[in-house]
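Key result, reporting period 2: structure in, sequence out.
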């Protein structure tokens, strides 16, 4: 029986964790494989796992910067764990897990090593000089590299001089939903956005753009699903714009679908995005999508604007105009709803998971 280890920093409520959960479920339902999940930290597991998954923790809480100095020790523990369990393939997601996976070679790990780069946030920053050097050195030692968008692959090749032939683009998967209906005419149009409350998600832009929508339609609503360090600041912005009766910050929600299927328009305001899981999940419910044209995932998902509305990045006026335009036009909402339902088929879990399986075999 083939033995596969998935390695990730922790299993909290993030996009990489959700993708890993979906891959584990699919592989176990269609293949006779033994699946191990290796967590670098001892943080709580927030997503439900199949009972067959064997979970290992390398130890320690997630503490910023301290974790980087512990990587060598964790790489040794990882190498011993992979060897003891006779793992055939190890697949890692997120930067620290990727480095730890490759570094395990130093301690005799012989299995096939596949790493997955999912974010632009490590790239091209003067504050991350050490991280960038680690990417260049360690990523080149992996057997295969999965990039979740063509933009990330291009950056890995041009900025870090990695071998393009080692890099395969595999977009993130999404579960298809049977619940998808065409929008209907209504006064209380409800916008929704999903994402961690951090600066890169640029929810401040979204809230300011939504304020203009309320000026046009006082019954409009905005729901933002997600938690993060900026929650208090964003709540303050909501109050300063007198939007307390219009904007809801829910905190982390394990099942966004219950909210998505009650909403009318999905809005994504990120400054940069490796892929955009929240977009494809919204599309799976047939929601029309408006997104900033940030590097680089949203543009790839929406195919340059064919399957949703792309607006100039970090531009409140352009975003508010598009939000108002879709709010006022049922015909446009129905058009982009159909486009969402068509496009999301390309990201169905079976298609994406089979690409992962093909990559490691």
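The corresponding designed sequence is given below.
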């Amino acid at each position: 029986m083939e033995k596969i280890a998935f390695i990730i920093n922790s299993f909290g409520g993030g996009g990489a964790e959700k993708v890993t959960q979906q891959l584990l479920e699919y592989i176990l339902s269609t293949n006779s494989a033994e699946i191990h999940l290796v967590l670098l930290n001892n943080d709580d597991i927030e997503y439900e796992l199949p009972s067959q998954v064997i979970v290992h923790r390398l130890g320690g809480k997630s503490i910023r910067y301290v974790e980087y100095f512990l990587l060598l020790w964790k790489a040794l523990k990882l190498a011993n764990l992979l060897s003891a369990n006779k793992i055939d393939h190890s697949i890692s997601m997120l930067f620290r897990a990727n480095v730890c996976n490759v570094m395990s070679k130093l301690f005799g790990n012989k299995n096939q090593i596949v790493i997955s780069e999912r974010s632009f946030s490590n790239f091209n920053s003067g504050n991350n000089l050490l991280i960038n050097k680690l990417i260049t050195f360690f990523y080149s030692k992996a057997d295969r590299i999965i990039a979740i968008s063509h933009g990330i692959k291009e950056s890995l090749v041009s900025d870090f001089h990695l071998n393009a032939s080692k890099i395969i683009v595999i977009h993130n998967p999404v579960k298809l939903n049977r619940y998808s209906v065409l929008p209907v005419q209504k006064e209380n149009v409800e916008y929704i956005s999903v994402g961690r409350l951090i600066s890169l998600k640029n929810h401040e832009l979204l809230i300011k753009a939504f304020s203009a929508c309320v000026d046009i339609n006082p019954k409009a609503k905005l729901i933002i699903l997600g938690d993060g360090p900026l929650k208090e600041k964003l709540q303050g912005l909501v109050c300063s714009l007198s939007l307390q009766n219009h904007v809801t910050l829910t905190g982390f929600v394990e099942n966004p679908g219950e909210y998505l299927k009650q909403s009318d328009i999905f809005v994504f305001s990120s400054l940069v995005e490796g892929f955009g899981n929240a977009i494809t999940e919204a599309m799976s419910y047939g929601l029309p999508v408006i997104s900033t044209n940030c590097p680089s995932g949203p543009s790839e998902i929406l195919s340059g604007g064919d399957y949703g509305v792309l607006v100039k990045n970090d531009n409140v006026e352009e975003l508010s105009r598009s939000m108002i335009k879709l709010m006022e036009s049922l015909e446009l909402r129905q058009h982009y709803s159909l486009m969402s339902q068509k496009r999301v088929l390309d990201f169905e879990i079976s298609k994406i998971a089979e690409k992962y399986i093909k990559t490691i075999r």
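Residues 190-346 form a domain with the Rossmann fold fold (CATH 3.40.50.2000). The longest helix spans residues 15-30. This case is discussed further under Risks and Mitigation.
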